[in-house]
Amino acid sequence: MSARVLSLLWPKNAAVVQTLESTHGCKITGPDALMGAVRPEIVAEARARFDRAAPAIATVVAPQPDQTLRAGMAAAMAGVLGERLTAAISVIDHLERLHTEEPFVGILLNEAETSLGKVTAAWGQLHAVPVFMLSHGANVANAYTVVRETQNVDYLFVFGERGAEPYVDRGFPRERIVVTGNPAWDAIPAQLAARGQTRARLRTALNVPDGVPLLLFCTTWNAKLTALYDAHIFQKTLAAFFGACAELQRRGVPFATVVKDRPSNAEFGKEEATRIAQRCGVDGFTYATGDLPPFLMAADLMVGYESSAFVEAMLVGIPAINLWTPSTGLMGPGFGCDDAIPAVRAHDVAALADVCALLLREQSVRDELTAAMRARLERFDIGGGMAAQRCAAEIAARVRVPAAV
Amino acid sequence: MMSDEHPAEALIRWKTQAWQQPETVESYARRVADRGPALLKNRVEVRMFPRFVTGRDVLDVGVGTGRASRPLARDGYSVTGIDSSAAMLQKCRELAGTTPMSLVEGDVAALPFEDASFDTVMALNAFAHFPHWQSILNEWKRVLRPGGRLIFDVFSLDHDLAFARATGRPDSYAIEDLAPREAGAYRLRLRAEDLCAHASMAGLRVHALVPYGALCGQSSVNRFLGSNFSGYGWDRQLSWLDSDAKLFAFLLFAEEAIVGALTPSATWRYMAVLENAADPAANGAWLARNREREAALQHGLNAQTLQVLGLDAERLRRELHPHLEHAPNRAIFARMLLAALPWNWPVKMRDLVDAAHAEFLEDAVHRGSLDRIALLTIRSIAGVPAISQALTYAGIDLSGAFGYDMMSAVLDKGLHAFGEPA
Predict the structure, then answer these.
(1) Closest chain B residue to A223 measured between Cα atoms?
(2) Can you give the pLDDT at residue B46?
(3) Distance from A154 to chain B by nearest Cα, in Å?
(4) Which of A97, A146, A147, A267 should we substitute to test contact with B (largest number of B Cβ atoms within 10 Å)?
């Protein structure tokens, strides 16, 4: 009898699932199994439960003295409940049915904070099915508000020791954290073997002449989970970058620019970036939303903000500059002084231009910095092309395989 | 086989043996190095001794690497260091170089010195190892000249008691639950009142109990500042001290001028400065003054509280101003103010800082308040029986399942925390 594992892992972690199947004989059930048609009885059930719960939300917001805010908060909470409750109950309904057909022995998640992950984790814990959460990022940000609440998983897989730190800080037991590396980066070592070709191909596609350095900007976003975080961080960091680009252009430094955005920003990202570039007086840039590593291989310098992208820069071996904003100070920095990621204040575009110019011009400084980045890499990611295998082996060793009948 | 050894003796013997290992010594020397995350704690501790040292002849008990007394020796004090670990003394000799120091291998609980041999007896990270602290204090006092000073650090039970009371728990929580569990992690926690009482009996006068360590990281525990100022995250912030002199100057100022002016219940450890003079009345007066300061602090931080603490509000504002001109310092000061929010501890911003900086700080506190309102409201859903019952399906209480989406919805649409696009 094969061990049935429920995987809600994102496509970038597909290799873990494939290895569990091919090497460890697990039978994988994917997220589609939970997303099937919602039975009419479930819709009715959710509606009835919502109708019972929603009026009581007024008691939850009662301590808030301002009537308008009280109404706004209650409406916001009721809105989420109304939108999500049916799906959550349906997921449980599917889990119960699937588990009855053939029991799950493990559950794999990439996050356990949004409702799908949270409900599935809670169901797993109720049914004594071990829940594994594979970090979807390098966990460079300090946890805040609801993001601090990942206590509902049995095992947490992180890319490197650094990824464990925010969880240890919030009280997650160290003995339940496993350092595996990031499966999504397993391909990078092989890709680096063909780095020259990738670089040449992409630079041709981007129309960057030989000898002209390429500056890569990785955008950031605001998950809106804390009011402390700058609401306009996407715009402000881009403005800092384009401000420095304009300064470099004024100084006569030749370079080309790529803005690498998150796919989820594609709807507004290009337009917004164009508006900011124009405001800063920057002539021309390329907007892209593809995979980051090829862009890193084509680029000579990366600028970004408190992101896992810096770890990818470490993997690829190009210098990278982290912007500092007041939000960095309020939330705490994601990188330490020894991590070989220089920090430059976002509002100081002249300083940013200076550091960019230095890192584009001085090979010895570049070499020193990338050597220091390499030395820190293992702290952030131990992958080495083996993370998927490591994850699969660690999961297989911990799932409860049912005894053969 | 059962041992007849007293648990305190066994603990001391275990710790003494641990420090004999050269690798333990090296690891300790690295941990207290004057750089990176350790820089602030090291400086705050080391700078305490020149402030309170008296006379010329100084004994450093449990001298270790000599980090606290080497600077005194360099400044011309006649320093004797005693340690039970030959490996530690070797490391101290190595680091002292040509600075003259007399180093003695011996028992720090039975000092091999004549009575009244020293003007100052100091100890850093040594006194707190001894559960039988009264006899240790008596022994250290024995070698002190009349009018001389004992200077040592100890952990604050007042801090844990204040935390227990602030969170509605009994004192036993502070005394038992917050005590380190493992024998090797033992640390002596003393109430100011107990130290004063023993000082009076032993013929010692309390000169000062200086709280410190609120911002020092390095496994520091500050139960009121919380996770923003402890753990890996805060140590990562402190790692920038090497390259950000203004940040270092600010945190040092905050520790020395602000934290140091509070009471022993404010931080997890304090530096005790006792004088070799029998003066129970002075000790009683010190305790009364401490209680008055504690009472003032209950009302929050404002000009009146500062006055009771012996701080001049105008001068503090003037001294804070240049520190707050540096953006990272401003942000960290805001984090300190944010840490006060869960305790409903009112801070009258304009009594502390110039209007120029108050705006940023007040905005940060406002935003922190919105986070807190949203988070507490969302969390409280699970405590409402009508909601919890309605949302429990197949044994799973879904009332806490939507926190992620609710947080952004409440902040954005309920509290309008994010304003209009830039």
Answers:
(1) B408
(2) 97
(3) 17
(4) A146
Distance CA(A296)–CA(B13), nearest Å, equals 56
Q: CA geometry: angle at B318 spanning B315 and B320, to 5°?
A: 105
Amino acid (one-letter) located at A311? V
Q: How confident is the model at residue A354 (pLDDT cuts 50, 70, 90)?
A: very high
Average pLDDT, chain A: 94
**Could A231 and B410 be called an inter-chain contact, meaning their C-beta atoms sit closer than 8 Å?**
no
pLDDT in tens, A33-54: 999 889 999 999 999 999 999 9
**Mean pLDDT across A350-355:** 97
Q: Residue B362: closest CA among chain A residues belongs to which residue?
A: A228
A 34-73 → B contacts, CB under 8 A = 45, 49-50, 52-53, 55-57, 59-61, 63-64, 69, 72-73
Interface size between A and B, measured as CB pairs under 8 A: 215
- List all residues 6 or more positions away from A90 whose beta carbon is below 8 Å from its beta carbon: A34, A38, A39, A42, A46
Q: What percent of chain B has pLDDT over 70?
A: 95
- Best mutation target, A47, A77, A136, to test chain B (most B CBs within 10 A): A77
Per-residue pLDDT tens over the stretch B165-209: 999 999 999 999 999 877 677 899 999 999 999 999 999 999 999
Q: Which residues pair with A157 in a beta bridge?
A: A134, A178
ipTM over 0.90: yes
Pair A274, A251: CB distance under 8 Å: no
A65-90 pLDDT per residue, tens: 899 999 999 999 999 999 999 999 99
Of A111, A94, A110, A79, give the one whose Cα is nearest residue A36: A94
Is B371–A227 a contact, with Cβ atoms under 8 angstroms apart? yes
> pLDDT grade, residue B27 (50/70/90)?
confident
Interface subset of A 332-351, CB within 8 angstroms of B = 332-338, 343, 345
Q: Residue A130 in contact with residue A400, Cβ under 8 Å?
A: yes
Q: Across chain B, what does the average pLDDT equal?
A: 93
Give the predicted TM-score (pTM) of the model.
0.93
A7 three-state secondary structure: strand
| Closest chain B CA to residue A326 | B331
Residues of B in contact with A63 (CB under 8 A): 377
Give CA–CA dist B352/B313, Å, rounded: 7
Asked if the Cβ–Cβ distance from B404 to A345 is below 8 Å, we say: no
User: C-alpha angle with apex A361: A367 to A377, nearest 5 degrees?
Assistant: 30
Closest-CA residue to B346 (of B357, B337, B358, B359):
B337
Report pLDDT for A400.
67
- Calculate mean pLDDT across residues A209-228: 94
Is the CB of residue B357 less than 8 Å away from at least one CB of chain A?
no
Query: Taking a C-beta distance cutoff of 8 angstroms, is the pair A393, A96 a contact?
Result: no
